[in-house]
């Protein structure tokens, strides 16, 4: 495990817990066996600080226990050595709060956090600032710190719910987008088929119009031929009628 990154939460100086974790000594093996049985790490407590005796020492110990429950100690291994770092129980001054605000602004600018919208970097830094404020308040008033802890957990739970809702909404939107894309592809294929049918029908209409024009032309020519033939027959019949009439007149009125 790599050393933890620098946090805005104030921690005490790291304490070396064990050395040479890879070296198999009888004591290390026995500790390892105890760890496997208890399924938890055996971490020695840091050396006690100089605290006043009596009720004040008990109060300070309770405050440290509350701080450790709110902000658990950080553990990491480096060069085969196990280190632990507890959150600081030193009260904060007004200058510490001012420095915290300046450090927050500096890191927001350094890590290029977005000012609006969803930004994991900005959220991480503000979470650290909130934890540091809870630490400062808890040292002065444990009850107020525990109440702020409830507020923090409620906010995180609300954010997690909104994040889950956002992710589900994004997934739903992606599904709808894919369905719309599939529907668009089907619609485009349908449009292409209809356009092809339209072209086929237009071609058939053109062919039928051409055929109709040819039929009308032939019908007109045929009608003209029939009319011409009919007129010729009429003229022939008229001439024939005149000839017959002339012959009849000749027979009826012979010349003397």
UniProtKB/TrEMBL annotation:
GO cellular component terms listed in the entry, alphabetical order:
axoneme; ciliary base; dynein complex
Listed A to Z, the keywords are: Coiled coil, Dynein, Motor protein
Which residues lie in coiled coils?
A: 177-247
Could you state a single Gene Ontology molecular function term? Answer: dynein heavy chain binding
Please give the Pfam families that the UniProt record associates with this protein: Ax_dynein_light
Query: What family classification does the UniProt entry report for this protein?
Result: Belongs to the inner dynein arm light chain family.
Record protein name field: 33 kDa inner dynein arm light chain, axonemal
Instruction: Provide the species name.
Output: Opisthorchis felineus
């Amino acid at each position: 495990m790599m050393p933890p990154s620098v946090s805005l939460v104030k921690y005490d100086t790291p304490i070396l817990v064990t050395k040479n974790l890879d070296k198999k000594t009888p004591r290390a093996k026995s500790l390892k066996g105890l760890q496997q049985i208890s399924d938890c790490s055996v971490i020695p407590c840091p050396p006690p600080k100089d605290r006043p005796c009596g009720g004040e020492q008990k109060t300070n110990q309770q405050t440290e226990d509350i701080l450790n429950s709110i902000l658990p100690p950080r553990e990491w291994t480096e060069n085969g050595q196990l280190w632990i770092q507890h959150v600081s129980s030193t009260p904060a001054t007004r200058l510490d709060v001012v420095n915290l605000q300046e450090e927050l602004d500096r890191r927001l600018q350094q890590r290029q956090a977005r000012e609006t919208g969803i930004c994991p970097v900005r959220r991480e830094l503000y979470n650290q600032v909130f934890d540091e404020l809870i630490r400062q308040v808890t040292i002065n008033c444990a009850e107020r710190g525990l109440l702020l802890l409830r507020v923090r957990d409620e906010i995180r739970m609300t954010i997690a719910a909104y994040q889950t809702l956002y992710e589900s909404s994004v997934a739903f939107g992606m599904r709808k987008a894919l369905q719309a894309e599939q529907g668009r592809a089907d619609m485009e294929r349908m449009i292409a088929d209809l356009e092809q049918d339209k072209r086929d029908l237009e071609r058939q209409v053109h062919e039928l119009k051409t055929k109709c024009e040819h039929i009308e032309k032939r019908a007109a020519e045929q009608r003209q031929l029939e009319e011409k033939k009919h007129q010729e027959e009429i003229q022939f019949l008229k001439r024939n009628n005149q000839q017959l009439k002339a012959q009849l007149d000749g027979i009826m009125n012979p010349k003397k």
